[in-house]
Amino acid sequence: MDAFLHQVFAGLAAGSIYASLALALVMIHQATHLLNFAQGEMAMLSTYIAWSLINAGMPYWSAFFLTITIALVMGIAVQRFILRPVRGTSVLPLVVVFIGLLVICNSLAGWIFTYTIKVFPSPFPAEPMFGQRYVSSHELGATAVTLVVLALLYGFFRFTPLGLAMRAVAQNPVSSRLVGIRVGWMLALGWGLAAAIGSVAGMMVAPIVYLDPNMMSGILLYAFAAALVGGIDSPGGAVFGGFLVGVLENLLGAYVIGNELKLSVALVIIVGVLIVKPSGLFGTVQVTRV
Amino acid sequence: MNATPAPLLEVSDLRAGYGPTRVLHGITFNLAEGSITALLGANGAGKTTTLRALCAMLRPQGEVRFGGRRIDSKATEDIVRLGIAHVPDGRGTFLHLTTEENLRLGAYTRRDRRSVEEDFERVYGYFPRLKERRRQQAGTLSGGEQQMLAVSRALMLRPRLLLLDEPSFGLAPLIVREIFEIMRTVNQRERTAILLVEQNAAMALALADQAFVLETGRIVLAGPADAVRRDDAVRRSYLGY
Lengths: 290, 241
Description:
Helices cover about 75% and strands about 0% of the residues of chain A. By secondary structure, chain A is mainly α. Chain A starts with a helix and ends in a 14-residue tail after the last helix.
């Protein structure tokens, strides 16, 4: 029973990371109707920035918040300088841009920081907290950090004029323009926020999987699965999907298929959802009149 | 020289289209401050295109001045900030947001918070049904309520000029009458100028001070609403008697 509980908690901790990355995917999807394949690599690059700051002697939490800010600016810059010029074209050029971004981020990290695996520090104590044995302090802390980020985002979108404007743009850009919202900047801000969320996911997962330029590739796959399970147009669904995928992955890995095949769980979930319920658990069903 | 004030909106030789298709072939008209103007014409005449060109939803050629300033090369967002509110074709409702959020977006560019709160009460006064439904998702409102919401969203800007694209479309006659009554009230109380595109020519002419008739992208008739109503061709084509 102890081992089982441990797997569940570890799954929830991993799930919190999938949840934040899935949320970042959903935010970009709402603006572009595409999946950003480079989301994970952007997060990885931000994590390297955090690593450099910490190695330069900056205290962990200062580096943490500075990295989030840098990621935000980076996300905005990516939208303004790379995506905006190809807007209005068809889907394929955008997909190529996303893949290009993925490759560029990956190579950039390899070129600057080399492909050697690095240890990334955790801000949480090494011993389990609160007198329990099921979950390490880092897993608990990472989950808490993720939940705080999600709560902040919810508050931002729900209660601030800027958040309302961003939701409006995601739904109806034409009408948004007609009430005076600067749609281009809202899209850029969406990219910035997604990159910022991704950077938190990167910094929280790096102490577990170690830092290297390919650390996010598997995680991005789980995040895709999470976003699809929850419904690609549902932020809440993406978060739920993240936790669900985390737990499923851990339990199946521990008891059914073994750790080596764990990643295939993500693929099975992706294909399964697309076949059985393409709109996901909380997504809206798209109906097209012909 | 007469002392008529400068018009609120001056449009000269406005041309616009979609891709290679030209829709407007150079139209020229003025709107006076606080006036109601009806823009009539058959389907495809260019009525909706005229409204879209005025607020830069497509790139027009020609000259448009609003309050004396050129706006024809400005972005839509900036034209809105000058005080032109557009209720577009299809109403432009944010279907997944609540009624209240839709209205709040209408006042997005305004910084005078207190009078925005007053304006909520003002539009709820015009359309009490929206107040009952203020926490409801806009997509669940009836067609009439959505049209009221679209007009109210535009009013939340406190516009100097209101562009209305077929407010009667698909609505029961009773609701159309209610909305037209409110338009008249808004115009009289707040001196908001209105440019009204309508298929329902009889109602539009009853409300308007002046009217234009568009035919395949050109203005073929212009004048005071009464004169346009008495025009034989208009009577036959648009009023049906």
